[in-house]
Each structure stands twice: as C-alpha cells, then as structure tokens.
Design a protein that fits this description.
About 30% of the residues lie in helices and about 30% in strands. The protein has three helices and five strands, in the order H-H-H-E-E-E-E-E. The chain has helices spanning about 5-10, 20-25, 40-55; strands at about 65-70, 80-90, 95-100, 105, 110-115. Strands 4-3-2-1-5 form a five-stranded antiparallel β-sheet, covered by helices on one side.
Length: about 120
C-alpha cells in the first residue's frame, strides 16, 4: 500500500462540516452600547471642541488622543469598545465624525471617552 493511500485511512472525518465554526461564533461575546449620561456627553463635546480649536489654530502638530469608541459587530447584535490612539487630522461637525491621521473614521455618536494625551 502506498503512503498516500495509507495516510488517507487515518485522515480526520467531520460528519458536520462547519459545526465547530458555528459553535465558536455562538460562544463569542459581544457588548451592548452604553447610554451616556448628559454630563458625560457634554464633557466629550468639550474635549472635541478643544481638539477642533487646536486644529483650527494650525500651530504645532495635531493633538495626540486616545478615543474609546463602540464598533458594531458585523455578525451579531452588539459590538465591542475599541481604544484608538493617534493624531487627529480633522473633526467634521457636519458629518459628526473624527478623522484620525492614519485614516480611521470615528462617528461621534460612537465615542465613549476622549483623552488628550499631549
């Protein structure tokens, strides 16, 4: 018997293909989006306003920040909170978004916290 035929005898057999992936997806935990208190929203808006003011002045480098924001899960209800840090390129009040210099676009309604790192 050739080695190939002999190896085929011991190959794993999956009666339910895709079952393991389905179980893993079911076990994956997502978070619910938190509802922010008005005072927290005001604080976030004040920090974004400070960043926008620095960008409009055009002096020095763009502010370095860490933004905690919610990212929707593509497969399940809910999502997760992600920390994005870097320099802010633009704050668009009309589109209600923050554009980071590395190209990440963050919707303002998804922001949970803003920390100006300097």
């Amino acid at each position: 018997m050739s080695l190939l035929n002999r190896a085929a005898q011991f190959a794993p057999f999956a009666a339910l293909s895709g079952y393991g992936e389905a179980v893993a997806e079911t076990e994956r935990i997502t978070e619910e989006r938190a509802v922010l208190d008005d005072s927290v929203v005001e604080e976030i808006n004040a920090r974004l306003g400070e960043i926008a003011e620095r960008l409009n002045r055009g002096t020095g480098s763009a502010p370095y920040v860490m933004i905690t924001h919610f990212v929707d899960d593509l497969l399940k209800d809910g999502g997760s909170y992600v920390h994005t840090s870097g320099n802010v390129k633009k704050i668009d009040a009309y589109e209600k978004s923050v554009l980071m210099q590395d190209g990440i676009l963050i919707n303002m309604r998804d922001i949970f916290d803003v920390e100006i790192m300097e």
